[in-house]
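Sequence, structure tokens reproduced for reference:
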Amino acid sequence: MRQMDEEELAVIAEVARMYYVEGMSQADIADMLFFSKAKVSRALRIAREEHIVEFQINYPLKRSIALETELKRRFGLEEALVVTDLYDNQNTDISIKRIGEMAAGYLDKILKDGDTVGISWGRTMHQTVRQLKPSSPRNIQVLQLVGNCMDDYNVDIDVTTLTEQMAQAFRGTTVRLYAPMHVNSDIVRKELLREPIIRKAIDKIRSVDYALTGIADVSLERPKSTWAGYLTENKKRELIKKGAVGYLCGYFLDRDGNKLSDPINDKIIGISFEDLKKVPHVIAVQNKSDLPRQWDPASLEAGLGPALPLSAREGQGLEELEAAIARLFPEDGTPCGEILTNARQAESLSRALASLRGARAALEDGLTPDAVLSDVERAMNALGEVTGQTLREDLTARIFERFCVGK
């Protein structure tokens, strides 16, 4: 096929818009544009071949309503989402797409202005970002958890691309990690970590509110593109021989959930494995426990906390999960103090904290007492919105909007 110029492509795009968007018939399009029906049909074919028009079929996500209901009943959860295979599908790409769809919807639900989200790379992350359709813009910051992959790596699933795309979807900002993911030379790696721009990014990564990363198994059958540029087949065999069964955010793990003792794990530039483990109250839940697995759930506890096999198909593991949660949150271990019940209270406390920090800074800078008092009063007013001692005008208006006040 000859190369078409922009004017011809624009005409083809307009024909496609009239047919697919406006719902016009090919005969009506031909009459309007003074084309033959054959020319309209050919334009629509070219639109598909040149990817001017692309189709996406959104299969319904099959959820285990029974398991969701039981989880909510047993643990008093506000919401539980369990995704199962649709018609026992064995296509990995379709399964990953469905996981991405559910993850994208969950992110849209939980993320709010001011949140920081770290993201890694891979096919699951690619599908999660690709399926993002935020209901509204969010002032979030998306951070690159690890450095960049090699030049021959699939650019669509590279961490740099995913960081930018996720931020664009929410209209947020990014923090890039200007470094390679792996550095063979220890000397070069240490010098890179001393660079201010890299050190600043690493410091921010350590305090992210959310970390998005896939957990994958190590297998010789897995696509070569997963570790293109870093991992040869011989090295992969060596890691498997040493006991590697999976990797998390670039770190290879043994079946005990520990970081594998291999130099490849010491060459990463990004969030450290120790920082990943510092997330409190982690429970790793492994689905499909009715199928063969390489992970040893009992031994994973040593590395990442309690790990429980759970089968959506068989309904196994609920009692064990309930017991694990009970151990983490004993009845006699309830902390003192009140519990925040909505986003408005959390926002009020955030403003109170910011005002108190401003007051402290004013004191340290030697400002006059009235300047310090202004910040203190703002902090007290924000705290009062939580305790009920003060009420902002916009909050009063919101109450009148939501409730019918008696005449």
Remarks:
- DSSP finds 16 helices and nine strands in the chain.
- The radius of gyration is 27 Å.
